[in-house]
Amino acid sequence: MRVVTPRPAQTDWPRPPSCLRADQLRLPPDGARITVAGLVILRQRPGTAKGVIFLTLEDETGTVNIIVWRKLYERYRRAVIAGRMLRVTGRLQSEGDVIHVIAEVIEDISPLLDQLLAPAPEPAPKHAPEALSPDTQTG
């Protein structure tokens, strides 16, 4: 038996957080404007799709399917082609078990990945107790 979580009405959907995780995509109602982010694991441009691009992003909780219409692709071409990690804002499209985000804004946030490789900052040195000068030592 499959458990179906009821969706809130469009008017009940609060302003979303900066990015939803993949496992939260059932929370907003169909048509809600949301933002997601993740590593680009798949880019598809089928010949039969009339210029539509399909992206799959992955975050720590799962995958998100993104639809990029041709006109939007022309605007964000560089990010779509070269981005290793993207943040996408768009409209949620949900029908049954199939969930997509129809892209409206695409941002290449790949430079954030480089921060993962940066060495951790050195911890602040612990102050050693000040040594007593010979004239203050007791003996």
UniProtKB/TrEMBL annotation:
<dbReference type="GO" id="GO:0008408">
    <property type="term" value="F:3'-5' exonuclease activity"/>
</dbReference>
<feature type="region of interest" description="Disordered">
    <location>
        <begin position="120"/>
        <end position="139"/>
    </location>
</feature>
<dbReference type="GO" id="GO:0003676">
    <property type="term" value="F:nucleic acid binding"/>
</dbReference>
<dbReference type="InterPro" id="IPR004805">
    <property type="entry name" value="DnaE2/DnaE/PolC"/>
</dbReference>
<dbReference type="InterPro" id="IPR004365">
    <property type="entry name" value="NA-bd_OB_tRNA"/>
</dbReference>
<feature type="domain" description="OB">
    <location>
        <begin position="34"/>
        <end position="109"/>
    </location>
</feature>
<comment type="similarity">
    <text>Belongs to the DNA polymerase type-C family. DnaE2 subfamily.</text>
</comment>
<dbReference type="GO" id="GO:0006260">
    <property type="term" value="P:DNA replication"/>
</dbReference>
<dbReference type="InterPro" id="IPR012340">
    <property type="entry name" value="NA-bd_OB-fold"/>
</dbReference>
<protein>
    <recommendedName>
        <fullName>Error-prone DNA polymerase</fullName>
    </recommendedName>
</protein>
<dbReference type="Pfam" id="PF01336">
    <property type="entry name" value="tRNA_anti-codon"/>
</dbReference>
